Amino acid sequence: MPKKLLILLFLLTFPSVLYVILSSGKTLFTPLKYIGEKELAPNGKDTIYHSIPSFKFANQDGDTITEKNYEGKIYVADYFFTTCKSICPKMATELLRVQEKFAYTNGLVKILSHTVNPENDSIPVLKAYSQMVHADTKMWNFVTGDKKQLYDIAREGYLVNAMKGDGGADDFIHSELFVLVDKEKHIRGIYDGTNIKEVNNLLEDIKLLIVEYFMKEGKDKKNQR
Q: Distance (Å, rounded) from C-alpha 193 to C-alpha 178?
């Protein structure tokens, strides 16, 4: 489906967002905030925001997944493990809502679930789990890899756990948080993935982020004329 048709479908589907755009545009539309530390760029004008570092993992199909797979994408990241019986089933249910709501974007919105128990969650185990939760793996990856890298990026990249750890045998992260990441790998929202109201906020924020890019692209094209 052509990109312009997707955008039109989005605006017609969410009239409240269309109203925001049509009603004085810049005055009423407030971009999502950036989360994490920020600093002034060397030019003294621009702001450098916290961003997700490079990574390299394997997904449920044994394919290598890196940050390049998410270039130009909006995605939701989380941490789970397949044998979890407490918060993870609820989180998977809520991520299914994300999958269903944004399937129409044809790959613009994605989901990236990291295991916190790579010793158990092998590629075949992740494959079985993805099937069990009815994930569309064209949109939703489940990844495993080196435990230290998984944990380092959780703490230093996605900011889901403030507790220090070394990624060793006794280190364990168990987080209910969903992290919304924009096309430039900046964090634009963090939500409780077990709370329906917070996930509703996530769904709305994804819509706003799509509109933010729509408006930015329109402005860039206008400036190029």
A: 6
Instruction: For residues 104 and 6, give the distance between their C-alpha atoms in angstroms, rounded to a whole number.
Output: 7
pLDDT, tens only, 99-133: 999 999 999 999 999 999 999 999 999 999 999 99
In order of start, what are the domains of the chain with their CATH numbers? 48-209 (3.40.30.10)
- Which amino acid belongs to residue 162? A
Contact 154, 173 (CB under 8 A): yes
Total-model pTM: 0.85
Q: How many CB atoms lie within 10 A of CB 36?
A: 15
Residue 7 is encoded by which pair of tokens?
Answer: 């955008």
Average per-residue pLDDT for the chain:
87
d(CA 218, CA 202): 24
pLDDT for res 125: 98
